From TrEMBL:
InterPro entries with a match to the protein in the record: DNA_mismatch_repair_MutS_C, DNA_mismatch_repair_MutS_core, DNA_mismatch_repair_MutS_sf, MSSS, MutS, MutS2, P-loop_NTPase, Smr_dom
Name recorded for this polypeptide: Endonuclease MutS2
Family: Belongs to the DNA mismatch repair MutS family. MutS2 subfamily.
Description of how the protein assembles with itself and partners: Homodimer. Binds to stalled ribosomes, contacting rRNA.
Organism: Sedimentibacter hydroxybenzoicus DSM 7310
Species lineage: Bacteria, Bacillati, Bacillota, Tissierellia, Sedimentibacter
Length: 792
């Protein structure tokens, strides 16, 4: 019954499709041996094998398996001292070449070491011998010819044959061209008989032409005679051809012996390449159906996310979501005919078989299947005239076999359970069968039209209804499977849409028990409510997505505006700093001149000069203070110790924006943050608390002092004469000061020397938190002796 169930679920068709992806006949044979497994670890291995096949094909393209063929017969002949045919030797060379190329394909140029563990383990066992490959290819031209250069002796023999043949052609052409002989010939031509050159002589002139008769025409009027003058020459060619044949046999025997010596290795290669072809076929098949590797369990749990039946055209198949075996072990699917119930049932069964065979599934990530001891299915109308079985009897025969074979690890599928007989009795039997399986906790899915089974699912623990949608307005199914909601047959609605008189429909309704009518009406209301809710949910999701896009767009624009304004401020500060530096230089020159003048002045003038000098110094200090009066020194403004709470000022790291918390944290550790006019939900891990304004003010004077100290930092540092450790300490302190001084670019002088200092500085700069990039100086900047550093 297990094999019959596989056939019913069309697992055999999947195997044939899979076989079409194998490159070789051996690979196809291996595919056709594929079967399901009940061993969880074994299935996991097969799934990983397929995953590696998919990954390597995506990364490196199609594997180079061309030329790999069955060589068992050839290598065995070589191993016992026989001669392998030219075709056989070429096949052996092709297989060695395929083995070498596949080995390189798997083992070389991988992104990560050990990324294809299973495939690499297989390929490590492949034997390669490029010398044998090239020797065969150099000697054998095709299936009927070997090269003249196969051996010096063969080349010599063939050259002599060519010379003798040319001599014969010249001689016989002379004979035919002779005026004496021409009058005896039927035609002025030369032809071949039994590999001998002959001329057509009229029968009556036989005695006039000396030679050996090899043939005559059908009428007997023409004799084909080999002239005596070339008989000996032709005999010599025959001897040379015998020698050629012996030399060819010797060469082939030598090549065959080479193959015989590596016979065991080549047979091992054949097994490995066959397995690789099988794995690559699984990978190609998975890619062709856009499949994913399923999660695996052995507790009977199935979860299919957007599953697509692989035998239905991928352009028209409707994906289904289905789950079974966790919160409930029995699923009863209802709905109208042609609504997709059977396809949903087959998808559940076929996915289980494919997963247990190590094949990936055409679904979305998150799909999970269980490893069962067996999958049993009774699907389709198997009415048998020969066995005098009705539809009901045929189904019941299958069900009897299934009930005898199933165990607690089985998965059972029934299509239209209890159909084909009296509805009351059929429904009772169906409930009894499902309840028996349910009591044994056997995972089961069944389709039905019976209302009794819908009620059974509603009133029984671990049993649930499912339904396939049907659009009554268009009289067409949607093929969408819904779990948790029983379906309607919609017979009355469909009949009404098709034009059946309302009186007839009302009469039909009156013949049905009142509670059944009410039940069907309730189902209709539930279905309408579900469709309405899903439509609203879709609309809400769409609006939410649009809102998120607009929100992201607004934040991006705000971030860009802030970056632009910050850039303008930085540029203005840079210009102001240049003006201050220039003013300071001029002030220093003026003070210097005043000092010189003070030597020749009286006391009153000296006092006045000192007052002016003091005034200049104070003005310079005031300008420098004003330059930084509106700047906030950001370092050490963060509070990593106090827990976050409602009202705290924070920095949102991902947005690089400041705001404040306006709500309490929820269960997922998310909180609402106000950034300007925007309110957004942010994860706790993305927030950094900023110290309070009072704490900032306490540091303002210190910050200003630091700014004043660093404002006149030299844009160049000279590290020459220091060892590497001393130089890096000096450089680290200098970079901090230069960065706080808002310098965009500085120069580090390290000299050329042995290059140790330059290399150490280069490596240090690559990891420094303030450095955006660094480069060696240009010719006019100091060349290799200077590194130019740009700050972030």
């Amino acid at each position: 019954m297990k094999n019959k169930s596989k056939s019913v679920l069309e697992f055999d068709k999947i195997i044939e499709i899979l076989a079409s992806f194998a490159e070789t006949s051996l690979g196809k044979e291996e595919v056709r041996k594929l079967d399901t497994s009940s061993d969880l670890e074994g299935v996991k291995f097969k799934q990983k094998q397929t995953a590696e096949g998919v990954s390597i094909i995506i990364e490196k393209g199609a594997p180079p398996l061309g030329g790999f063929t069955q060589v068992k017969e050839y290598v065995k002949r070589g191993s016992v001292g026989g001669i392998i045919s030219l075709r056989g030797l070429l096949n052996c060379a092709d297989s060695l070449r395929a083995a070498r190329l596949v080995k390189n394909y798997v083992l070389l140029n991988n992104k990560e070491e050990g990324s294809y563990e299973i495939l690499e383990d297989l390929c490590n066992g492949i034997y390669t011998n490029k010398d044998i490959e090239e020797r065969i290819y150099n000697i054998i031209i095709n299936e009927e010819e070997i090269a003249d250069d196969a051996s010096p002796e063969l080349k010599r023999i063939r050259k002599e044959i060519q010379i003798k043949q040319n001599s014969i052609k010249n001689k016989i052409n002379q004979i035919v061209g002779s005026s004496t002989i021409q009058k005896y010939l039927q035609e002025n031509i030369v032809t071949m008989r039994n590999d001998r050159y002959v001329i057509p002589v009229r029968k009556e002139y036989r005695s006039m032409v000396k030679g050996i008769i090899h043939d005559q025409s059908s009428t007997g009027s023409t004799l084909f005679i080999e002239p005596i003058a070339i008989v000996e020459m032709t005999n010599e060619i025959s001897d040379l051809k015998m020698a050629e044949k012996k030399e060819v046999e010797r060469i082939l025997l030598e090549l065959s012996a080479m193959i015989g010596e590596v016979a065991d290795d080549m047979l091992t290669n054949q097994d490995i390449l066959k397995e690789l072809d099988f794995v690559f076929a699984k990978g190609k098949f998975a890619i062709s159906i856009n499949a994913v590797e399923p999660k695996l369990n052995e507790r009977g749990y199935i979860r299919i996310k957007k599953g697509r039946h692989p035998l239905i055209d991928k352009n028209v198949v409707v994906p289904i979501d289905a789950w079974l075996g966790d919160e409930f072990t029995t699923l009863i699917i209802t709905g109208p005919n042609t609504g997709g119930k059977t396809v949903s049932l087959k998808t559940l069964g076929l996915f289980s078989l494919m997963g247990m065979a190590g094949l990936h599934l055409p679904a979305e990530y998150g799909t999970e299947i269980s490893v069962f001891s067996a999958v049993y299915a009774d699907i389709g109308d198997e009415q048998s005239i020969e066995q005098s079985l009705s539809t009901f009897s045929s189904h019941m025969t299958n069900i009897v076999k299934i009930m005898k074979e199933v165990d607690e690890k089985s998965f059972v599928l029934f299509d239209e359970l209890g159909a084909g007989t009296d509805p009351t009795e059929g429904a009772a039997l169906a409930i009894a069968i499902l309840d028996t399986l349910h009591e044994r906790k056997i995972v089961t899915a069944a389709t039905t039209h019976y209302s009794e089974l819908k009620l059974y699912a509603l009133t029984t623990d671990d049993v649930i209804n499912g339904s396939v949608e049907f659009n009554v307005e268009t009289l067409s199914p949607t093929y969408k499977l819904s779990i948790g909601v029983p379906g309607k047959s919609n017979a009355f609605e469909i009949s009404r849409k098709l034009g059946l008189n309302q009186d007839i429909i009302d009469k039909a309704k009156r013949t049905i028990e009142t509670d059944k009518v009410e039940f069907e009406d309730a189902l209709k209301q539930i279905e309408e409510n579900r469709i309405y809710i899903e439509a609203k949910k879709t609309e809400i999701d769409r609006l939410n997505e649009e809102s998120q896009k607009k929100h992201s767009s607004f934040l991006a624009k705000e971030r860009k505006a802030l970056e632009k304004s910050e850039k303008m401020i930085n540029e203005a500060n840079y210009e102001a700093r240049k003006i201050v530096e220039s003013a300071k230089k001029e002030t220093a020159e003026i003070i210097k001149e005043l000092r010189k003048l003070s030597l020749d002045m009286d006391k009153d003038k000296v006092r006045r000069v000192n007052e002016l000098r003091q005034s200049l110094t104070e003005k310079t200090k005031e300008v420098e203070e004003n330059q930084y009066s509106d700047q906030i020194f950001e370092d050490d403004n963060y509070d990593d110790e106090t827990p976050l709470s409602n009202g705290d000022a924070v920095l949102v790291r991902s947005l690089n924006q400041k705001g404040h918390i306006i709500s309490e944290f929820d269960n997922s550790q998310n909180v609402m943050v106000q950034i300007g006019l925007i309110k957004t939900k942010v994860k706790k891990s993305d927030l950094v608390k900023i110290k309070s304004e009072d704490e900032k003010k306490q540091k303002t004077n210190t910050s200003r002092m630091v700014k004043l100290k660093t404002s006149s930092i030299n844009p160049t540092i000279d590290l020459r004469g220091l060892n590497l450790d001393e130089a890096l300490l000096e450089l680290d302190k200098y970079l901090d000061d230069a960065f706080m001084s808002n310098l965009n670019e500085v120069q580090v002088i390290h000299g050329k020397g042995t290059g140790v200092l330059r290399e150490g500085v280069t490596q240090f700069l690559k990891k420094h938190k303030h450095v955006k990039e660094s480069r060696l100086g240009s010719f006019n900047e100091g060349g290799d002796g200077v590194t130019v550093v740009t700050f972030k």
